[in-house]
Amino acid sequence: MPETIENYIPQNALKGLKKQTFKIWSVVLFLVAVWIFIILLAPIAAANGLNNISNPIYNFFSHICHQMPSRSFHTLDQQFAVCSRCFGVYFGILLGFIIYPLFRSMEKTEPFPRFWLFLAMIPIGVDWSLTVFGIWENTHFTRVLTGLILGFTCAIFIFQALVELSQIILVRKQSKLEKAVLGRQPFG
Questions:
Q1: Binning pLDDT at 50, 70 and 90, where does residue 58 land?
Q2: CA quadruple 31, 33, 37, 39: dihedral, nearest 10
Q3: Among the listed residues 73, 102, 76, the one whose alpha carbon sits nearest the alpha carbon of residue 90
């Protein structure tokens, strides 16, 4: 069945899609790795007396995370800049970006059903709820595991959204360029 004009993607744009997708993947993977590095830098800097580095990091993350010492990992007798659940989410996002190209073509923009995103929220909600209602006390393991599940799933949806957005922008730019070029050429 022939494609409709609305679904037409100029050939020049198709060539750039794969390159554009790899760029997005690389940049976001780098940014997430830096984010995790900064989380780990705080306790290392604090343990070495570099409070001018660690204090701003802890302060920044205090606006994102409760940073309760009993719910945070520690290294060198200093707590991470975020709790174990937040660390699990961020590390899950990193893993999701690393693993994504191994199980799916990076150029695909057909999203997974949102059902999977909502399903990934269930373990974190159950773990949190059971603790709030005093049924059980969650542990570092359950907090990290539920965070990993949610972060990994979010990474897949974030990447697909970024790729789709970049493809829309690239196709629009290419279409405008082709229209401008075609508009100047005489038809004979």
A1: very high
A2: 80
A3: 73
Q: Where are the domains of the chain?
A: 11-174
Which residue stretches of 48-139 are H helix?
Answer: 51-62, 84-103, 115-132
Regarding pTM above 0.85, the answer is: no
DSSP string, 63-74: TT----GGGS-E
Quick one: CA dihedral 167, 105, 157, 141, positive or negative?
A: negative
What is the rounded distance in angstroms from the CA atom of residue 124 to the CA atom of residue 147?
7
CA distance 136 to 110: 40
d(CA 106, CA 88): 24
Backbone angles phi, psi at 176, to 5 degrees: -65, -40
Contact 146, 88 (CB under 8 A): yes
d(CA 185, CA 173): 19
Instruction: Give the closest residue to 6 by CA, choosing from 172, 169, 177, 160.
Output: 172
Q: Residue 140: enclosing H or E segment and its boundaries?
A: helix 140-184
Q: State the chain's mean pLDDT as an integer.
A: 87
For residues 92, 80, 130, 114, the Cα torsion angle rounded to the nearest 10 degrees is -20
Give me the amino acid identity at 114. R
